[in-house]
Amino acid sequence: MMLENYAKQIYRCARCGxxxxxxxxxxGIHKICPVYEHNPKGPWDFLTARGRLAMAQxxxxxxxxxxxDLVEVVYSCxxxxxxxxxxxxxxxxVMGVSNVDxxxxxxxxxALRAEIFKRKPNLLLEKHRQVSVNIAMHKNPYxxxxxxxxxxxxxxxxxxxxxxxxxxxxxxxxxxxPEICESTIRxxxxxxxxxxxxxxxxxxxxxxxxxxWDYVETLAKHNLEELKRVGARRVITSCAGCYRTLKLDYPxxxxxxxxxxxxxxxxxxxxxxxxxxxxxxxGVNCRVTYxxxxxxxRHAGVYDPPREIIKSVPEVEFVEMTPTRQYAICCxxxxxxxxxxSELALRIGxxxxxxxxxxxxxxxxxxxxxxxxxxVDAINAVNSRIKFYDVxxxxxxxxxx
Length: 401
Known about the structure:
Helix content: 40-55%
CATH topology of the largest domain: Rossmann fold
Structural class: alpha/beta
Strand order of the largest sheet: 6-5-7-8
CATH architecture of the largest domain: 3-Layer(aba) Sandwich
Shape: globular
CATH class of the largest domain: Alpha Beta
Order of helices and strands: HHHHHHHHEHHHHEHEHEEHEHHEHEHE
Number of strands: 9
Strand content: 5-15%
Radius of gyration: 21 Å
Number of helices: 19
Mean pLDDT: 91
Distance between the termini: 46 Å
């Protein structure tokens, strides 16, 4: 929906500032917005959710214009949604006394970016403009050759041409962290599942998050036709961004035509472990903590499967960071921030690494290639002793059927 459709929600903001400095001491929550806390220019109020909502209101009322400074503020948000979890307008939903979400900050900020792009496309950040060019030309945001999307495929694995289970690899894993794809296939095949692959194009998540909506329907329709061609019923992805897009955005874009069951790889693999189709051996004697990807956790409500998989590994001591689950702090890599504001993304990532160190974790685990990309950069930047693995990488080393 366009920005004007959110006018009622925008006016619901009480401007209380809870999105800046909430205090839930019993849950270890004293700060919630990573951009407000770690922006190199300092903690200004316009960097909070209420600040951006005020900008959205100003645009709707014609009181302010779109400038380079405004674009920088609007696009420096990771769209993590933590502000939504602590918002007093959202509390009735959290408490279970209402099922009407009267203020969805993430949806509003995505619509705000789309409004900016519609009115002043020339002010789009150059890095984000290049992403759209790369997707149009190469079907991935990195500008890598499309024919190399499945270069990671194990020589021992020959994907089926038809099948009701399809592995949707995404872009970041194949082109930047192929070890996640390799590990996913290893684990699934050990459970007797041989997923098909398709001639997939970028799911379009980065375009949706940066307001460049025009081309997304083309991407979605292509992926839909490919899935129908191979007879898919279940779509498995190890990318949290793809998961959110395929599960939540595609149904809105494509309507009832999109009728596939979308599962994150951790959901399917925990299901296989529970059924006894996968057994875990070869324990790892180490202290492990887990970082919740925003698209997988807050946006889609998947919290338990990754944790249960980690706990299933013998000898692992699992410990939670604080805050966690729906109040977990974003890694800093999402919403186009990694490409558009690399220093900010790194600062936020370093803060996550410090939280992992504060609980004496030896291994930091997540379930998203974007989180891996930013957190590995952060670990290297501060020479941390912590090792990072995607949860499927950790599991792939020690499962058998």
